[in-house]
Amino acid sequence: KKMSKEKTKVDVDYADSAVPKNGRKGFLTMFMIMLGFTFFSASMWAGQQLAAGLDFKGFIGALILGGVILGAYTGLLGYVGAKTGLSMDLLAKKAFGQKGSYLSSAMISFTQIGWFGVGVAMFAIPVSSEIFGDSTLAKWILVIVAGVCMTASAYFGIKSLTVISYIAVPLVAILGTIAMVMAVNQGNGTIVDQFAVSSGTLSVVGGAGLVLGSFVSGGTATPNFTRFAKDAKSGTIATVVAFFIGNSLMFFFGAIAYIFVGGNDIFEVMIRLNLFYMAILVLGLNIWTTNDNAL
Fold first, then answer.
1. Which of 104, 131, 230, 291 is least enclosed, having the fewest CB within 10 Å?
2. pLDDT-derived band of residue 11, with 50, 70 and 90 as boundaries?
3. Measuring CA to CA, how many Å separate 126 from each of 120, 231, 269?
4. Measured between alpha carbons, how far apart are the two ends of the chain, in Å?
5. What are the pLDDT digits (tens) for 105-140?
6. Coil, helix or strand for 25?
7. Does 289 score more than 70 pLDDT?
8. 44/94 Cα distance (integer angstroms)
């Protein structure tokens, strides 16, 4: 008898089925993946708006209120994903049927792919401007190179996402925080004093709306990641803690950027502090983790 030499191709990301027990990940890995997902440069834009319209007390209040609502929303989704092992698309099919799931899947797909493009541009444009000036060609080359690299790593699924998250999350958190502290120390007075220059035109509830709205679309895709958690408890805790810490850090980065340089990105702060290479590293890794999650 002839032995078949054909090898069955294994879907390591279990796109059409529940993730089995042997494909599940521990708490630390899930925490790193979810934290990397929340390291989203566009959240710094919301941080800029919060700093422009709120004093420090209001800023913290908005972070807590918005974070609690967003954490509850993503936590519930994370629980369902970890409990069932199913992706958001498969859960939508169970809830709305085959055809009914098309709308929700399309909405999330379009927003996530759209943000992938925005993320690539948010890396390529400022980096190109710093190195090559106003060269349009250089910007397009960086867009293509960054897009190809991020897409290539996303092709390998949860394994590459895990590796990138373990590298990027500590570096972005530590280097970004160091730059933020340096910027505050160079300012006039304490961080509370520096927030006092805000216009005061934003309410805490309005600020909480910015916090919630900045990542509610991405948060809806939470089951796509928590389905790899070893159990529902660890998946839920990793999601809630990561969303609160990660989002809050991004909002602080954006707020300090607004106060220190009038911008909305920690990249601008680092450039002002003469931390050029560190700025490129933090910006690139920050966007890479989110873009890989988006795909």
1. 131
2. low
3. 11, 41, 12
4. 44
5. 777 777 777 777 778 888 888 888 888 887 889 889
6. strand
7. yes
8. 36
